[in-house]
Amino acid sequence: MSAAVPDGGTVVRALVALKLRLLRNGLKRSRGRAGVYIVGAVFGLLFATGIALALAVLNGRVAGSGDAGVMLLGVLTLGWAAIPLFLFSSDESADPTRLTMLPLRPGPLLRGSLLASLIGPGPLVSLVLVTGAALSGANGGASAAADLIGVPLAVLCLVTLSRAVAAGNARMLSSRRGKDFAIFGGLLFALLVQGANVGWQSTFGRPDANGHLDLSPLRPITAVLRWIPPIGAMDAGRTAGEGRYALALLQLALAGALLALLLRWWRRSLQELMVTADSSTLEVARGVQSSRGWGFLPAGRTGAVMQRHLRYAWREPRAKAAVFTSIGMTLVICVLSVVQGWSSVYLLAATGMFLGLQMLNLFGMDGSAFWMIAATLRTPADARDELRGRAYAVLSYAVPVTLVLAVVLTVVTGDWAHLPSALGLALALLGCGIAVGSMLSVLAPYTMPADSNPMRNAAPGQSGLVLLNQFGSMLGVALLALPVAGYLGWALAADRPTWPLLAAGPVYGGLIAYLGVRMAGARLLERTPEILAKAIER
User: Fold this and answer.
1) The predicted structure's pLDDT at residue 181
2) What is the 3-state secondary structure (H, E, C) of 199-232?
3) Quick one: which of 168, 290, 349, 441 is 20 to 30 A from 201 by CA?
4) pTM for this structure?
C-alpha cells in the first residue's frame, strides 16, 4: 500500500518547522554549546553591521568605495559556493539524502528547503553585508529603488547557490572520498584566503601619497565582477544612480536568470536523489581483502599496530583531518613568512611540534573498538608495543614531511648554514611531542564524537580535557626541548657552531620519545578501564 503524499503547503511548513526544531534542539544539548552559538551569532552580526556601516560611510568620501562593495559580494559568493564542499557533514539540514525515503514531490521539497535555508544567522549576516555593499555605491532615489529588488535577489541567489551545490554533490560529499575532498579543499581554501589577505593589505589597503585611502586600483577587477550575477544585482543600484537604467535592469535580469537556473539545478538534483538509488547499494560484494601485513613494517604486534594506525590516518576522516591540518598550519605559517619577508629556516620547528602532537588522544579515535585492543593488553610488553607501533606510524610520515619542508625552506631563504641546527631542533621537538602525546593519551583521554565529521574532534562535555591536551602538550614539549633550544640560543648568541644539533637533536628526541613511550606503557595497563570508558562514551 503506497503512502499518502502530503500537499505542498504541509511539506513547506513541516520543513520550516523542522529547521527551527533542529536549531532549538541543538542549543538545548548543552549550555556551553548554546552560549558559543549565541555569542558567535551576535558577534558575527555586529561585525557584519560594522562592515556595512563602514562601506556606507565611505560612499562619496573615498575613491572606489563602490568597488569595495563589489569585491565584498564577490568574496561572499565564493564563500557561499564553497561552504557546502567543506562543511557539508556538519550541517544536517543541508543533506537532502536524509529525506529520500519520504513520499515528497520535488516542488514542495524545493520551496520548503529554500525557506528553511533562509533561517539562521548566516543568511542574516549576508543580508547585512549585501546591504552595506549596495550602500557603498548608492546615489539617489533610483539607486534605492533598484536596491530594494537587487539586495534580496542577491541574498536569494547566494543561499540557492549554496544549497544547489550541496544537493548536486550530496552523495559524493557524504562519502569517505567527499570527506577527504573537504579536508584537502579546506586547507587549500585557507591558503587562498591568507594569500588574498596579504595581497589586499600590500596592494589595496594602503593610503595614497596624501595619506588618503584609495580603492580605485580595484576598478579593473570590479569592472568584470559587476556583470557576474549575483554581484550585478547588488551593483544595479549604483548603475541606476548613474542614470544607466537599461544596464541596471540588465544586471537585475541576469541575476534573476541565474536564480532560475540554480533553482532548476537544485530541483533536478533533488528529484534524482529521491528516485535514483545510490550506486553504492547496487554494487555486488567484492569480497574482503586479505589482511596481509606490509613487508617493510616491523614484525609482531608493533608492526600490526603501525599498519592499523596508518590505515586510520588514511581512511578515517577525522584522523586524516588532524594530520593534514598540522601540515597545512605549518605551510600557512611558512607562506606568510615568505610573503611578508620574515621567513626563517627555524620555522621548521613548528613542523616537528605539530606533527609530534599527532600522538595526542591515541585511543579516542578507536571508539568502541578499543575494547578489542584492551582485551589483548595482558603484559607491560603488550602495552609498550601498542604505543611503540603508534609512535612508529607517526614517525613514518612526520620525518619525511619534515625533511622535505627543510629543503624547501632552505631553498627559499638561502640559509644553508643553519639548516643542520634547524633540522636537529625540529626532530628533537618531534620526539618530545611523541613522548608528551603518549603520556597524555594514557593520563587524560577524551571522548571522540560518534559521527565521522572531520570538523568535530571531541564529544560534548570534553572541553576541559581537550584544553588540557592542547595547551598542556605544547607547554610540555617546550619544557622538554629546553636543553636543545637552550644550546641553540647560546650558540647563536656566542657565535659558536650550531651544526652539532644535527646529530644531538635526533638523539635527544629519540631518547625522550623512548622514555615517554615506556613510561606511558607502564601506566596503560592500570588505566585501561578508564580509557575504555572514555573511548566508548558517546
Assistant:
1) 55
2) HHHHHCCCECCCCCECCHHHHHHHHHHCCCCCHH
3) 349
4) 0.58
